Amino acid sequence: MVVGDIATGTEVLVIGAGPGGYVAAIRAAQEGLDTTLVEKDAYGGACLNRGCIPSKALITGSGLAHEAGNAESMGIHADPAVDMGKMVEWKDGVVDRLTGGVEKLCKANGVNLIEGTASFVDEHTARVAHGGEGQGSESIEFEHAIVATGSRPIQIPGFDFAEDHVWSSADALAADSVPDRLGIVGGGYIGMELATTYAKLGADVTVVEMLDDILDPYEDDVKRIVRERAEELGVEFHFGEGASEWSEGADGGYLLHTETEAGEESTYGVDKVLVAVGRQPVTDGLDLENAGIETDDRGFIETDDRTRSAVEHVHAVGDVAGDPMLAHAASKEGIVAAEVIAGEPAALDQQAIPAAVFTDPEIGTVGLTEDEAEAEGFDPVVGEMPFNASGRAMTTGHTEGFVRLVADDETGFVLGAQIVGPEASELIAEAALAIEMGATLEDVAATVHTHPTLAEAVMEAAENARGQAIHTLNR
Amino acid sequence: MTVEEFRLPDVGEGVAEGELVTWLVAPGDRVEEDQPVAEVETDKALVEVPSSYDGVVEELFVEEGEMVPVGDVIISFRVDEDGDAGEATAESDAGATASEAAAGDDEADTTEPDDEADAIEADATETEPATPSGRTFAPPSARRLARELGVDIAAVDGSGPGGRIGEADVRAHAEGGADAGADGPSVGSASDAPDPKPAPTPTDVGSGGRTSAVKKRDAGGADSETGAADAASAASDAPDPAARETTLATPATRKVARELGVDVDDVPTDDTRDGEAFVTGEDVRAYAEALESEAGAVDAPADAPDPKPVDVSGSADAAAAGGTGPSAAEPSAPGAADETVPYRGVRRTIGKQMERSVYTAPHVTHHDTAEVDALVEARAELKPQAEAEDVKLTYMPFVMKAIVAGLKEFPSLNSELREDDEEIVLKGDYNLGIAVATDAGLMVPVVEDVDEKGLFELADEVNDLAARARERELAPAEMKGGTFSITNFGAIGGEYATPIINYPETAILGLGAIEERPVVRDGEVVAAPTLPLSLSIDHRVIDGAEAAAFANTVMEHLEHPLLLLTL
């Protein structure tokens, strides 16, 4: 409405309304700080609009369809037809509710919302170009800023997301139909989640990965379970190959060209290519240098344990502040940033940040692996409980995977957990709590767990580490 | 026989705390179930809190005048199951030997012989962290506490299994390493004022820098040849700190302890609950007194600790910088002739409401005067009839009716602005709030559905609400739901005022006194009864012209009361 440049002031300017930014803004407002939140397109950020939430919706939908069509052993015979357009529409409804909720929460907490694109003018001023043509801009003077601009999918040479048949993860979550053949470049967690989803929806999925296995940071036995299950679903893997280019195929589709390090070339027929090789921070257009902030060689803003950048009154949270690029890490950082600005003794002092991969089966991890614990100087003891010994797992029809707890032998403190199997993303929360609270194996083992649940496996793993497991042979 | 604790119950919708105004019982009193034990003043009402037990009052945990959050223990009752109410009281005086012996052991566990002040500064490797990697095992709450107290958590000795660090460990460490005289800062109580007295320092017996209760024996014992012996003997009849690791106590007791600068873990007691030591407010006070008399006995000023007030604000910066001095922003101390009056309860509610209204709604006040000869006559005519029906008829019901006439014509004055939803709600009801001055402050009871009620009915209702407002007997619900308010300042005196809107309503009409004033009629100045009107509006919602037009309609109905029949 206002054309031209008007100046306003705020105590805290938050740039980006993703899970780092909106959480920071709300907490800052709760702390009584005058808070302004600038978002350029969608409240909730990548997480709600193009990441966690939409992917989980499609994973649930595709999983349900697949499950129903593959339950003959339970006496269920069905051949579900999937209306991809409708599924995406349902997903969009979920996203709308959540993003609308974010906006309402911000307002209810007294956060000033501005739609536009922010850039730094100097250390205490930002300019916000309002969304839309001819909407003008305004200068905002701030005492503190929190940069929460997030990340976007990395594009690789030869594969332009502007092409219809080249998908980013965002495109894959907004498709109106299931391609017959889907090539996926990258076997990381995003590639694997979408490989599983599209395989279950009936696509022929081919995954091309430069390394020699999927899901790089995870342990071999974890990877193997997920890879074997994906192969069962019909996903084809080609390791040690990098995508080089695409070309049009004779059949109306496309050819995905790959090359090994030795120079061997291969081609795979596809209808769409999903490039999922990672995410990069979004700092372009921010003019960080005007505020005196430099990014590291990967483009991230370096921060300390109180989320402060080199310029102390400018904080950075979430993906733009580097690993771990996880929504819940961003939210924690956002809260710490707001509390630090409010003068509270907050710090990023968590023992561990859990992570989940929503493949089939799911992976949940937190804290240290056995090797990492050893490297840190602990004398680790490990306990496991395979889901094929869990009554509840059997009744779900999914018995692949295990719960593994890593603890310090001398003191019994739980140091880490790796869970692969049904509901691993949920089960990991208990291990995270144990680690954060400084619980010992005995504490976990002695906590009564509900029967029959998958969570009993966590208790059993703790007992196993103590040589006292009831339902498995003790190591 | 059991002792039952009684918590401040939820005393009204949305009320989170109340001021305990008066205790109606004292320890030792026998009470029956449902008998009122205290008067509690919440935001807008004074309520009596009934007991839920038959029994004898054991202890009061809250002082009169204290603000109590809903759910805090305020009183305990000795509830007799087998009829015997008197026996248990004597036991508590029995010797504290057992707990003292235990305390000795605890000290050995939790005390480090080396000077901990050094340990804090020392490299973490010297303090032998619990694990080879230098990682400390402590829950988030303890880690946060450490930051609040400016303690390096890696230097804290954990007393839990495997050396796990609990909040008590962090506190013990902070006390051990802190400046002499600084008692354990209490945490999470930013609202408490800093203790004006220097905290009692029972343990400072000349060894310098050692303040923690836990430290005492080491200080006296290890340094006995360095002249601490006389100090130790002087302190010999001082109470021994019990130095437990955990102690059960009610929040009120803990507050007393904080205020007196006493660690509840040090307060001797024989009382237990569920196997844990239980400390009452009395125990704390007794212990604090004993400490103070001891502090007097030892020549305190000679090696008096830094008289820095204890920083209880929990500010990390202050703690980190070691600066605990009073902040520059502190309000000036009241002079000798000044009296301080608490700003809470009804007073604070009124204040907040006024502040909110004035800072939210841009007020404009429109003034005018109605010539009310006909109204005065009409009331005089109706008065005998009213008296016959035992109704005290004032002008208020006429004014209320006239306002309804105006509101029907100009609905924007009977509205609420919902900014977040970007909408103005035009109310369908005509519920008029009537401001009533009471001893406790301004109350605004609401008369509902004024449009549907007759003059006498309104008169009755207003009188009843006003009377009960003055008696503080209004229920919170009776002060809600207003759509427009009236303030009759003329009842006390005055012609015009600038009333503050009863937010989120958007208008309020102030009434001056009806008196004979000079008016001009047919070119002559004559005396006639007039009613000065002051109408404040929320200018975001209502334009000035609209306000004036509304006032005209109201005046027309007041000047020609027969029009009220047309409603």
Automatic annotation (TrEMBL), chain A:
Keywords attached to this entry: Disulfide bond, FAD, Flavoprotein, NAD, Oxidoreductase, Redox-active center
Transmembrane segments: none
Class in the EC hierarchy, top level: oxidoreductase
Residue ranges of every copy of the FAD/NAD(P)-binding domain listed in the record: 11-334
Catalysed reactions listed for this entry: N(6)-[(R)-dihydrolipoyl]-L-lysyl-[protein] + NAD(+) = N(6)-[(R)-lipoyl]-L-lysyl-[protein] + NADH + H(+)
Cofactor or coenzyme needed: FAD
Source taxon at top rank: Archaea
A molecular-function term among this protein's GO annotations: dihydrolipoyl dehydrogenase (NADH) activity
InterPro entries given in the database record: Class-I_Pyr_Nuc-Dis_Oxidored, FAD/NAD-bd_sf, FAD/NAD-binding_dom, FAD/NAD-linked_Rdtase_dimer_sf, Lipoamide_DH, Pyr_nuc-diS_OxRdtase, Pyr_nucl-diS_OxRdtase_dimer, Pyr_OxRdtase_I_AS
Annotated Pyridine nucleotide-disulphide oxidoreductase dimerisation domain residues: 353-462
Family matches, as PROSITE patterns: PYRIDINE_REDOX_1 (PS00076)
SUPFAM superfamilies: FAD/NAD(P)-binding domain (SSF51905), FAD/NAD-linked reductases, dimerisation (C-terminal) domain (SSF55424)
Family: Belongs to the class-I pyridine nucleotide-disulfide oxidoreductase family.
Protein's name according to its UniProt entry: Dihydrolipoyl dehydrogenase
Lineage: Archaea, Methanobacteriati, Methanobacteriota, Stenosarchaea group, Halobacteria
TrEMBL record, chain B:
Bias-annotated ranges (Low complexity): 86-102, 177-193, 221-241, 310-337
Positions with biased composition (Acidic residues): 103-126
Transmembrane segments: none
Region (Disordered): 84-345
UniProt GO cellular component terms: cytoplasm
InterPro entries: 2-oxoacid_DH_actylTfrase, 2-oxoacid_DH_E2_comp, Biotin_lipoyl, CAT-like_dom_sf, E3-bd_dom_sf, PSBD, Single_hybrid_motif
Domain annotation Lipoyl-binding: ranges: 3-78
Entry-linked PROSITE patterns: BIOTINYL_LIPOYL, PSBD
Name of the protein in question: Branched-chain alpha-keto acid dehydrogenase subunit E2
Lineage summary: Archaea, Methanobacteriati, Methanobacteriota, Stenosarchaea group, Halobacteria
